[in-house]
Amino acid sequence: MNVATTDSIVIQWQARGDVTMGIHDIPYGAGNPGTLNPVTLEITQDAKTETRHLGPDDTIVMALPSTGDLVIQMTGDNQSERLRYIRFVARRFHKDSMKDRQITISPPGAFQDRIGFTRHIHGDTLVSEGPVKADRWTDTDQIANVSDSSGNDVIVTHAGVTSTISSGGVPSNAFNGKPVNGWWNLRRLLTPEEKADQTKIPKSLTIYITIKRR
Amino acid sequence: MSIKNIKTVILVMFENRSFDNMLGHLKYEGIMPDARGLESDLQHNGYENLYNGHEYAPFPCPQDQELSNDLPHEYNYVATQLAIDDGPPPVAQMTGFVEAYASENNGIPGPQPDPLSFYSSKQVPMTSFLARTFSPCDNWFCPVPTSTQPNRTVAFCGHTEIYETKTQIIPATNNLFDWMNKHHITWTLYHDALSFFLFYPDIWRTLDEGNVVRYDRFATDLKNGNHTQVMIVEPSYQDAPHLLFEHPNDNHPPVAVGWGEMFLRQIYLAVTANPDVWKETLMIVYYDEHCGFYDHVAPPLFDNAAAGNAIPPLPTKFTTLGPRIPAILVSPWIEPGKVQHDLYDHTSVLQLLTEIFTEMNEPYSAQVDYRAKNGIQSLSKAIVDTPTNLTPLAPPADPIFPQHNIGDPVALPPKGKMAEAFENTARDVLQSNPGLVDKHFPELNNWKQTVDLLRPGAAISGAPSMDT
Description:
The complex is a heterodimer. Chain A contains one helix and 17 strands. By secondary structure, chain A is mostly beta strands. In chain A, strands 1-9-8-3-6 form a five-stranded mixed sheet, with no helix packed on it. In chain A, strand 11 and strand 12 form a beta hairpin. Chain B is globular, with a radius of gyration of 21 Å. The longest helix of chain B is centred in the middle third of the chain and has 16 residues, at about 260-275. At the A-B interface, strand 2, strand 3, strand 8, strand 9 and strand 10 of A face strand 4 and strand 14 of B.
């Protein structure tokens, strides 16, 4: 699941046992948790709102009823991309049952990602294709541009558009406004080095996409 | 020969972690740049696991914590994880870890799927300490691309007549205990809870008559010089039947690794406590298999059928070793800080034991001999002539805070094939060999009484549950 920094997160739960919820944020990717900006979370359940501060590498722990729903609204950081771990634990007879939810929270504007598939070979062409559908972006996210990630010209077909993405990472606007999700086909010619030594053929063929968020 | 300086070999096999999961940090953090761990740029080093068109990369664990579930690692999932490209030449691409995980999680792997996580040196302080102080092996693969029971069977028999983990009678032909008895090698099996070796009815009698003791005795035996030539130390297994308040320390997910780190520190302190014992000791810390955690190094092609192993039905590709596992050699007789790059698997231990403790140089078995002739080295290659670390370094003294995990409720039926198999084995041995239970595992009687009391009935429906 992926939301914008200004979005509300709605969670419902049903449990048997004493329920606690833990919230822990880390930078999306491989960043140091201590570098995240502190944020304020307004957690609303049963029409009551509780304000909690979440510092870098902190964990908020709350006791909850066994069944319910709540809404989490964040303020204080509109810049960093963060991954929120929400862990629900039901405890009974000194034993736990738990459920984890991961949510990426992306700032407004554009962010870059990489998409692609495991490749196969047709003659002298490397082909990677399949359906793109991931938690990483929402159905309302749109493509701003695409660019090559492999140092080769790549022919890209998606959402009724076919365009050649030139090597060197220069972004192409051919897919501007198209949705990310859907069927993609990526193709490029094998290089002479790859033809001579198939072990040099990469495992996958991918491209960069820049995504516009609302 | 330098290996003859070693009089005691201690085997400590943990459960279910890949090399990159536990020791990938050695390179990532620049601790041992020579180790084939993870490069610092996790996005651009060929580590990508693509699923539904999205690229997933390894990531550092935010903290050591219990996972919500075990990871898929039966043979069919391992085939997905390895993603063998038929080539030519055929090669495991190591790109299917997220796909296998998603297939067990309703197709939703989440933004940072657990299989791609790896620990920092601070999160596994003892493992990291032993690796940098002694000698990690960065080319040690589990012997078969499948789950716990077959891999452990190869580790202690040299081959496996099963290819998956489930409730079954596992043949123990050529098992290590009978081999040691045949060669008059003294041995002790230390178990922190129920022993994995109960899965092998073939060796119940050997265990009954052998030196099988609680782990509690390990430190005092070493301190008092009551050690044997081979000492096998078993952790408390996550999947074994547990009574209340017992905690597993085998590092098997979903358990957090804090308990295992504490266990490893205890073992190291015990092994190094008596200088007269330590100066003649080699301890091997290794894992049975990777559990579905990502590793970036493709296992080499290997003819498992020719090595005498059972093969799953087609179309599963079963043509390689299993993924890499963490393994560390701890001894004065290894070069400190040296990364071992030779090709090892669990039978490298059997080769070593043969070289140390027998004079005839006969192979451990035909199957181990086949492996040796097809690239699997003996650990004797890592042994040096001059000892170092005769005064061993003290381990990290910082407190380890194990994250909560006390096992599944005894009132609940077991979850997963391995836990089911463990419980069925416990019941089997209780029924058919009560003498063995009374002598070595008396706690099983208490466990059965408790289970009989709590199951079936209201207690099962009273267990905690969580849905979001």
